[in-house]
Amino acid sequence: MKKIDRIIKHHGYRKERIIQILNDIQSIYNYLPKDVLEYAGQRLGMPLSGIYSIATFYSAFSLKPRGEHLVTVCMGTACHVRGAPSVLSRLEDRLRIETGGTTEDNQFTLKTVNCLGACALAPIVVVDDEYHGQTTVNKVDRLLKEYEKKKKD
Ligand code: FES
């Protein structure tokens, strides 16, 4: 747990930095493993229940293992009326998972969100931190290939 010690030390052992600490932990594991949260809780003097309540409140945190790439489809009103359900359905078919799932090869996790605040670009798909506006069903394959290729490079 040396990496976790380093993160906690970097944040000055301060409980009020818990969101940043969780963020740093997630950047290592791509999710928040229970044993790591228990350890962090002990080091910070925080109960695991308190850490869980923060980790579950923010949608950016995941308590389940996630794929290398996080694919987020906006299902807010603007994206919905401009075709997001078809885009989501295509992604589920193509990845052979349902929303909330992770592909067997651990490459992709698929989730939805309600309005990313960029409705002019609807429908939007975000892969990791990259926004892809005006996404269509036809663009889905190309988009996934782009990220599959990034893995091989
Ligand atoms: S509804 Fe999708 S960005 Fe607003």
Please give the structural blueprint.
Blueprint: H1 2-10, H2 18-29, H3 34-44, H4 48-57, E1 69-74, H5 77-81, H6 84-95, E2 108-113, E3 125-127, E4 130-132, H7 137-152
Parallel strand pairs: 1-2
Antiparallel strand pairs: 1-3, 3-4
The protein binds FE2/S2 (inorganic) cluster (FES).
FE2/S2 (inorganic) cluster (FES) binds at residues 74, 76-79, 115-119, 122, 124.
CATH topology of the largest domain: Glutaredoxin
Q: Uncertain segments of ≥5 residues (pLDDT<50)?
A: none
Ligands in the model, by name, code or SMILES, are: FE2/S2 (inorganic) cluster
**CATH homologous superfamily heading of the largest domain:** Glutaredoxin
Given the structure, what is the number of helices? 7
Which architecture of the largest domain does the CATH hierarchy give at level 2?
3-Layer(aba) Sandwich
Q: What's the number of extended β-strand segments?
A: 4
Strand % is 5-15%
- Average pLDDT number: 93
Largest sheet: 4 strands, mixed
The topology string of helices and strands comes to HHHHEHHEEEH
Structural class of the secondary structure composition? alpha+beta
* End-to-end CA span: 30 Å
Strand order within the widest beta sheet: 2-1-3-4
Number of domains: 2
